[in-house]
């Protein structure tokens, strides 16, 4: 049991619910944070003293709580919270989205809307190297489909997939703005133009 006070209407009551994060004011239904966070503002995952607060939390819930608590359980910080996961893990697992929704007290559909709207977020593991093959009209007529086929064969994956060792992610894009160099492939920001089926392997090898 914990005594809570509503910041909105001032009502005070003894909370006996099960949530470790939020309670709803019985009078005005305002969302009230349960103030038992013990946060070390190091800003680094896994270095925060959550021992007391996270007694009832396990695994992903603990990791999510580490981040969400740094942002004061503020639902307006949803994008920044998701960016923190993206930056630290390279992608955001669905379990994390669901836990963020729970701990922030925002609907899961909204969390998904944000996570799928911005290109900065990836909901699947991403390889260390991102290979983007231009499939714009100009590159296409200059042989891009054959280059893509060769890359898929070399990596053993289809466009949109990541190799099991998380080394490469293969994607297609529409026009990279350098049509005269077609067919063009970009690897981690490096532009490779005038590619041929023969030299594709050399490009991939230079990132292994
Ligand atoms: S079509 Fe490939 S760079 Fe423009």
Describe this structure in words.
The protein has 208 residues and is of the alpha+beta class. It folds into 3 domains: 1-36, no CATH class; 37-123, Orthogonal Bundle (Arc Repressor Mutant, subunit A); 129-205, Glutaredoxin (3-Layer(aba) Sandwich). Helices cover 34% and strands 15% of the residues. The chain has 7 helices and 8 strands. It has helices at 59-70, 78-89, 94-104, 108-117, 137-141, 144-155, 197-205; strands at 2-5, 12-15, 22-24, 31-33, 129-134, 168-173, 185-187, 190-192. The strands form 3 sheets. It has a 4-stranded mixed beta sheet with strand order 6-5-7-8, covered by helices on one side. The protein has a two-stranded antiparallel ribbon with strand order 1-2. The protein has a two-stranded antiparallel sheet with strand order 3-4. A hairpin with a 6-residue loop joins strand 1 (2-5) and strand 2 (12-15). Helix 1 (59-70) crosses helix 3 (94-104) and helix 6 packs across helix 7 (197-205). It starts with a strand and ends with a helix. Mean pLDDT is 84; it is low at 37-56. Bound molecules: FE2/S2 (inorganic) cluster. FE2/S2 (inorganic) cluster is lined by residues 134, 136-139, 175-179, 182, 184.
